[in-house]
């Protein structure tokens, strides 16, 4: 857009220079055009120039110089700008100007140093054993090129990883000439590439979908495996660098522990609690092993996770909260072994630990995904997690960020266990009292109450006995299905209680009983919901390695949350209607009923909504206390404070007294007749 003036009038032109009959353009960007009525106009660009176009400044990404001194010129919104890589680099760099006129991070994954590209072409020529000297030369040249080099582009890291993979494949086929010097050079090269100065470049590869460090990690695993295969006899070799520690060896002992704390006492790994233990149950001969500890690549893996057979994005639900470790065994026949890893947490205030390993061959992925297959959570504390695996690969612990600190797990679990036990006791007492006084308290509401008490007892018993039975997946899924059904039944019966109350308060003249239809529906409808959910998901989402319940990460959880929230909403409306009706009609019966029915309405689950915010731990305690003591509240309000129950008890006592008196008179009469 241009602002133009002829001294008296001002104009705005929305055209490019090419479409204007311009006669003069000075160094300040002001030019003269033929205006209306053949008058001259002095015009200037309001925004900025892009070629021959004047663009509104609000839609422009301003000129910017990045960390590699590349000058990105003014660019219009929603435009991908590309430049040829400068200096000794080949390829091109790109950068996107977003819709709000802001530059995104530049992409240098296609910029590759000429010297590194030359080394890559040399690895393609490796063939027979005679080329082994070339391998050493390539590794040494690449190690020199990457040492303390803050000019490496992300394309250099990607190409260097490809070189290491080519070399790893070559030495796998020509192991006989491997030496410890080769291993030293290889580890030094990996250490250079994983230096902190390259962290942003690795992260750029994650953003661009190029797999991050996965290619490098795979090369390391394959290379050190080949090295272990050529060693004879018992030995232990440690190569410790600033960013990576590798320990390889062969041992005959039944238990192998890495890292060796004596040989790594001066390394960064000595400050970490992370430790790997191989327990050999059925193995013969020497066991070759290799282990790698990476200091700072936890955030440089693609954020994908295999759950219920599907690959899903983390979406903030999980984060890697430990260093990455790699452990592999070689050269022995082990039919039964376990790998136990103690992971030192990187950050606090995380929960729901997930024992993970990186599956390079995950379906529907290019570079792999995190998986929990073949793992078991052994122990979890504030600062560490212990996992057990029945296989070897790259391992890490995944946790949910910003969740309840694990220091609250034990007290919350104790409160829930004690509360559930107390509830079961008082629910059983409530059922017993109503059975004894049934002829005096029998009505539609007490029928619904008895069904609710039975459902709650079953829920609490199965919850206490089965919520942690995660060792058997089939059993765990079955428990999760039963709990899903029982909890939905609980809420359905709570809704039935609400319907009975509003019918009693609002409807003056009742036309028959509805309980004979209402109660069966409360048991059948939840079964339909659970049946559809289980069938549609094929039980995926029912139980995981932490608990036997609907997994929070799956959409299946809404098959419980949806109906539960609906019941709570309806019962809240019923409470409001009952209060308003009672106030308008000056009836205290309705208000009194509210105090009695609150424990039955599931309203305490509103606290559960607040308990999802883990900064408000107090609500988690309130939620655990109120819901686990629901049975106690029911007994107090529906037995101790219930007038109908008290009257029924009085009738019961009088009846018992009358029965005893009749029995006594009968006995005395018999004695008199006999005399």
From TrEMBL:
The keyword ATP-binding does not apply. It is found in: Cell membrane. InterPro entries: AGRL2-4_GAIN_subdom_A, GAIN_B, GAIN_dom_sf, GPCR_2-like_7TM, GPCR_2_brain_angio_inhib, GPCR_2_extracell_dom_sf, GPCR_2_extracellular_dom, GPCR_2_secretin-like. Keywords: Cell membrane, Disulfide bond, G-protein coupled receptor, Glycoprotein, Membrane, Receptor, Repeat, Signal, Transducer, Transmembrane, Transmembrane helix. The keyword Disulfide bond applies. Residues 235-405 form the GAIN-B domain. SMART domains: GPS, HormR. Its main location: membrane. SUPFAM superfamilies: Hormone receptor domain. PANTHER family: ADHESION G-PROTEIN COUPLED RECEPTOR (PTHR12011), FI21270P1-RELATED (PTHR12011:SF347). This is Uncharacterized protein. It comes from Mytilus coruscus.
């Amino acid at each position: 857009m241009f602002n133009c003036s002829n001294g008296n009038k001002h104009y705005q032109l929305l055209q490019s220079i090419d479409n204007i009959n311009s006669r003069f353009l000075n160094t300040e960007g002001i030019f003269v055009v033929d205006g209306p009525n053949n008058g001259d106009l002095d015009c200037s660009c309001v925004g900025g120039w892009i070629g021959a176009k004047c663009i509104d400044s609000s839609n422009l990404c301003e000129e910017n110089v990045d960390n590699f001194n590349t000058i990105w010129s003014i660019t219009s919104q929603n435009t991908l700008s590309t430049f040829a890589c400068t200096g000794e680099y080949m390829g091109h760099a790109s950068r996107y100007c977003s819709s709000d006129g802001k530059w995104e991070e530049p992409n240098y994954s296609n910029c590759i140093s000429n010297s590194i590209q030359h080394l890559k072409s040399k690895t393609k020529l490796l063939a027979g054993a005679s080329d082994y000297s070339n391998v050493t030369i390539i590794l040494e040249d690449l190690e020199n090129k990457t040492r303390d080099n803050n000019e490496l582009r992300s394309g250099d890291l990607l190409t260097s990883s490809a070189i290491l993979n080519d070399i790893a494949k070559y030495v796998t086929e020509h192991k006989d000439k491997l030496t410890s010097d080769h291993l030293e050079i290889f580890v030094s090269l990996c250490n250079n590439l994983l230096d902190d100065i390259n962290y942003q470049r690795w992260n750029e590869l994650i953003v661009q979908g190029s797999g991050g460090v996965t290619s490098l990690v795979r090369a390391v695993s394959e290379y050190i495996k080949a090295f272990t295969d050529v060693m004879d006899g018992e030995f232990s070799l440690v190569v410790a660098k600033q960013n990576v520690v590798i320990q390889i060896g062969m041992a005959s002992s039944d238990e192998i522990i890495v890292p060796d704390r004596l040989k790594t006492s001066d390394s960064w790994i000595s400050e970490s609690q992370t430790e790997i233990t191989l327990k050999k149950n059925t193995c013969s001969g020497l066991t070759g092993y290799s282990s790698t500890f990476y200091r700072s690549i936890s955030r440089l893996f693609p954020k994908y996770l295999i759950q219920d057979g599907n690959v899903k994005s983390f979406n903030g639900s999980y984060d890697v909260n430990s260093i990455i470790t790699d452990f592999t065994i070689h050269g022995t026949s082990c039919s039964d072994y376990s790998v136990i890893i103690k992971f030192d947490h990187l950050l606090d205030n995380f929960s729901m630990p997930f024992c993970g390993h990186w599956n390079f061959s995950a379906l529907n992925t290019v570079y792999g995904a995190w998986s929990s297959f073949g793992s078991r959570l052994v122990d979890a504390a504030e600062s560490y997690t212990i996992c057990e695996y029945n296989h070897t690969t790259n391992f890490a612990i995944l946790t949910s960020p910003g969740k309840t600190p694990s220091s609250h797990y034990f007290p919350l679990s104790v409160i829930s266990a004690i509360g559930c036990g107390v509830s079961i006791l008082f629910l059983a007492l409530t059922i017993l009292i109503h059975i004894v006084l049934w002829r005096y308290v029998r009505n539609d509401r007490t029928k619904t109450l008895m069904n609710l008490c039975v459902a709650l007892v079953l829920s609490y018993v199965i919850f206490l006995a089965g919520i942690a039975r995660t060792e058997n997946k089939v059993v765990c899924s079955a428990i999760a299905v039963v709990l899903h059904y029982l909890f939905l039944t609980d809420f359905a019966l709570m809704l039935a209680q609400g319907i009975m109350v509003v019918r009693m308060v609002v409807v003056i003249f009742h036309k028959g009983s509805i309980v004979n239809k209402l109660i069966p529906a409360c048991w059948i409808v939840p079964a339909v919901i659970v049946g559809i959910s289980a069938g549609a998901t094929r039980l995926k989402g029912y139980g995981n390695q932490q608990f036997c319940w609907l997994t929070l990460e799956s959409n299946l959880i809404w098959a419980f949350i949806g109906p539960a929230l609906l019941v709570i909403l309806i019962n809240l409306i019923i409470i409001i209607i009952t209060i308003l009706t009672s106030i308008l009609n000056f009836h205290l019966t309705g208000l009194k009923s509210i105090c009695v029915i609150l424990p039955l309405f599931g309203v305490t689950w509103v606290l559960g909504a607040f308990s999802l915010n883990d900064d408000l731990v107090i609500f988690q305690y309130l939620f655990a206390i109120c819901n686990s003591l629901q049975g106690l509240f029911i007994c107090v309000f529906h037995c101790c404070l219930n007038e109908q129950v008290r009257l029924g008890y009085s009738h019961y006592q009088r009846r018992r007294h009358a029965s005893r008196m009749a029995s006594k008179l009968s006995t005395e009469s018999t004695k008199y007749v006999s005399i």
